[in-house]
Specification:
Helix content: 25-40%
CATH class of one domain: Alpha Beta
CATH superfamily of one domain: Calcium-transporting ATPase, cytoplasmic domain N
Amino acid sequence: CAGEENWVDSRTIYVGHHEPPPGAEAYIPQRFPDNRIVSSKYTFWNFIPKNLFEQFRRIANFYFLIIFLVQLIIDTPTSPVTSGLPLLFVITVTAIKQGYEDWLRHKADNAINQCPVHFIQHGKLVRKQSRKLRVGDIVMVKEDEKFPCDLIFLSSSRGDGTCFVTTTSLDGESSHKTYYAVQDTRAFRNEQEIDALHATIECEQPQPDLYKFVGRINVYHDRNEPIARPLGSENLLLRGATLKNTEKIFGVAIYTGMETKMALNYQSKSQKRSAVEKSMNVFLVVYLCILVSKALINTVLKYAWQSEPIRDEPWYNQKTEPERKRNLFLQAFTDFLAFMVLFNYIIPVSMYVTVEMQKFLGSYFITWDEEMFDEDTGEGPLVNTSDLNEELGQIEYVFTDKTGTLTENNMEFVECCIEGHVYVPHVICNGQILHDCTGIDMIDSSPGGSGKEREELFFRALCLCHTVQVKDDDSVDGLKKNRLSRRSCIYISSSPDEVALVEGIQRLGYTYLRLKDNFMEILNRENNIEKFELLEVLSFDSVRRRMSVIVKSSTGDIFLFCKGADSSIFPRVKEGKIDQVRARVERNAVEGLRTLCVAYKKLTAEEYSNVQKLLQNAKMALQDRDKKLAEVYEKIERDFILLGATAVEDRLQEKAADTIESLQKAGIKVWVLTGDKMETAAATCYACKLFRRNTQILELTTKKIEEQSLLDVLFDLKKTVVIPNGNLTRDTFSG
């Protein structure tokens, strides 16, 4: 069914081999670009024509060129040199500046394109330049190396077929993301095994979205029918990302050179124009209008003066015969141009020379600025283009992310609430910190029998419902060991929230040990190891705002554990102490804590079998895969039993409040963008001094995403803010 679906706009790639694998269908060869990256604007051959075209698109340069040509063509009162030399100087200086900046880009491109990459050829590792890499080549990447192109992840040195990646240079995220190898190839460990792989990959044509990828790999064993596996963004390693905490990985190139997602996200290389230059162009047009009107008035006055014959031909300036026979309109136009040349000094070419020189030299002053030198990295500022120097001081708006920008992105588990009972690790009692306490009840009496069962389910849910990886090592890049753990585990995840939750539950008696051979192991309070088979992961996404796992216990029970935002969990809960948990969640949100709710449901073997079929069909779809998966998730994630909620703190960065205060004093408007609950966002804004106690806060919120209700809220705000006493009607506003 879904596996047989044809894909109209796709590409087919043979992995490592340029001939079809045994049993593969006939294939029309496709041409793919090589792996060269080009960020430069000019080449040696097109520099002069292209640069002149760019420069004469500027109104000022074009104007001075016209004046210069007029002076060459007609008999004018001033020499063509007066316009030609300054124009030549401006054009030359700008061309040299832009040529030098483009030469630096060429230099950087060459360094990247000549970088050595390890290929696999005939079962052996070969070193080649990055630019020689082709689609279908199998590449080996070592720890701390950048991926040379977009790769499908085949296998890794880690036993579980995962690897850790940082994508700082792509999206600014410094946390470790986990990627997963293709199921049928993750056991391959050496070059010979990888080289023996016969497979084809069908995937979409290149597109710039970093987080979206849909494909399918067909693995051929002997002459049998191929095994088809779905490929998603979790299997795609992007160019520019860096491999971390993994010795080596093997991957097959699917997008190379200018087709990689990184290259497709490059901004266009058209010349940027600063606000100062744009305003100068406006003034230039105004002065040009004044100049034309002056030349026009003077031409009219000249012919009015010469209307009398005695003034037209005075004795000292007799006309020649050809001059007397000239067309009157042509003569008037020539006189008009002569007046234009005579008055052209109203637009100073020297100003443009000065501005170009100031920009060029100003870029060096930025480079030399000692206060912008970072001692940690040993690097100063780098000026890639000097066209926008003055823009740095003209900023009106600052848009800032909250997590990791205003806050430290260093999450700390504060408490959890299970059916109204609050558990706080390391509670202070009489001035003493109680380490590894099993939970202190701060609201009610301790839970009874059924409550104890729910409590254990809650802890198990948090130990199992995540994408955290475990590294049994002290030397983890950029991460520190949890000193308080009973076992030396270091947790790595793309989400710091997940690490904080797993570490917090560890302090409450349940330790997540590892994922081995698709079995998750946890250590309970009695120091017994419990094993759960990981059946399915329903990944987190920003639309659903939740994630789920389906696991099978050693007794054969199948559980679906789900954690997510309260707005996405509460509507899907059919039983549990909803009111008590909701009250606690809202209280924590007001204090600025990040909250999550946890729920579960039991599945019968028959229900799981249906779920598995639905998920498999959706995952194998090549078209609208995300939409189909979302529909399946919606069917599965319902009728939950609520277990409880968690609260995690993310502290503000040092001097974040002072920085925002200074920006506001400078007249810069600051916007904080966050996906938190309304109350959490407001608490953070007060803490970082974006809001003051006397700030009037306008809430544009609606529980249901409907146009009508949103319009009502906007209408109320308009009445409040814009027209407090106005007679605005709803009908006139809706337009």
